[in-house]
């Protein structure tokens, strides 16, 4: 038994890398039965696998579909852990609402960011594309989000990022959420101008932006 | 050009085809099939791959794309139903694709042909502030921008594109009246600009409108082309069909194409090449597109001149030229570096040599991956036109050597993210004379000389 202790965490990492949903679920169940805490399962098994997937994506060895599948499997595993363990033991509990702003149907960048945040252990709710400011705010309130990530690919649609922030201010909710903006025409200058809390030029910077804001 | 029929037989399938959720389509239909076709047809990219494809690889990529189109179809996202095609319908559509188009009007008319691989005929070159944002400062003198491009005699046509953020002191908000007003202003500025340059019938195309209301509101001149793309990946929607119908009913030619991104849903460079071929054929069928395009971009770096992007674009372009025979545009479209830098010229040269020899009609837009503001330059289009014309004397082997040499000039910097942002149009051009600065001109002449030394027969402008 002692020889095999910890093997389930290695199996979990491998199953994530192989995008094998069944084996990853079995590995998580094994880890729970062996008495591992959620923190250990996430950091030593799931997290390691997801971290390698993220690195592989950055190196061009895997692509958005694989990253999405890994994120989907991670979601399923988190659900299993929630059912089998106390909810407050699962992850950091930081929730992110993300959306492409009103009038804009570009979603590639947002999806990459979403998959990477999921892989980094955030709970991600993707509201979709062409999303009105009210829907963004409603969704963020509904799930009790910590972050709102807004993506826009056109100068005509990045204006809606400002609309979301203004709506939050009007509703007296601005301090409830940290706002991170991104997308092709979006710049640090724009983010500062509209009062966003964070900005990064590309998808890989999104995790850093959120981590940075978590400490504030 | 006589209007082509409205493809109701395909649009009807958006209401009657097999139901499929978008995520199911993307992950289990499109991507799984695409991966299978890459393997089945043994289509492989490696950094050592020749940038200009062999005949066998071109045929394999075309066959894989045809299989992909027939096996997967196109998903209509409004109805979440799949539009499927029969092989005979695809064959018939390919037969009907025009081999030559007449663009523009009067003495400025341009004939653009479906070029072949290693075609000796000169390509039609397109310029304009394509794909990147334009500041309000420049919008106030927008006709001058288009005049500057029209003053370049080797630039055959312009793409009326360029997103503004404010107009008349108001934010250009998509769907608001100001967006329609802005779209009209852009078209009027372009018409005024080409008239000022003495080329009133110069062909124009494009549209910078986000919403269909703005797209339909502008009054475009005769001989205009407007775009309607296949949405990434292998998808369409009612909006795109409505845009095509608007064009068909108003005698605007539709140009089409795909938007595959390396690292995105189409996966690797191989997948993007295959998807781009399939999406161009689909665009001809679904929108009556008469011209295609290849714009394989990198999902993260958002430029089209990386080694992988050029390889994928050359392969897609070659397959469309050889096996479909359609007029096509593209490459480089968007560079990584901005104007007034050596790197931007090297990027343009690499993509233009590769693209022209693959059968492309090249176009040139903005720098810094379309992210920076006002990062465009008519001098880039002049340079591209010179390189494109010189490339018509090159065989694939020669072109491959030139592309390799150009790539080696910048790809290390690209990988290490040491890309120069360059200078804005207003910082590297004299806005009164519309001439490039001495610094910019010297860089241009240096790179032209380098290419001449390599045996590229560039003629002085």
Q: Descriptors for this entry?
A:
heterodimer; A: 216 residues; alpha/beta; Methyltransferase, Methionine Synthase (B12-binding Domains), Chain A, domain 1; Rossmann fold; 2 domains; five-stranded parallel sheet; 9 helices; B: alpha/beta; three-stranded mixed sheet; 13% strand
Descriptive report:
The complex is a heterodimer of chains A (216) and B (461). Chain A is of the alpha/beta class and 216 residues long. Chain A is 56% helix and 13% strand. A five-stranded parallel beta sheet of chain A has the order 2-1-3-4-5, with helices on both faces. Chain A starts with 6 loop residues before the first helix and ends with a helix. Chain B has 461 residues and is an alpha/beta fold. In chain B, 46% of the residues lie in helices and 13% in strands. The mean pLDDT of chain B is 92.
Short description:
The complex is a heterodimer of chains A (216) and B (461). With 216 residues, chain A is α/β, with parallel strands linked by helices. Chain A has nine helices and five strands, in the order H-H-H-H-E-H-E-H-E-H-E-H-E-H.
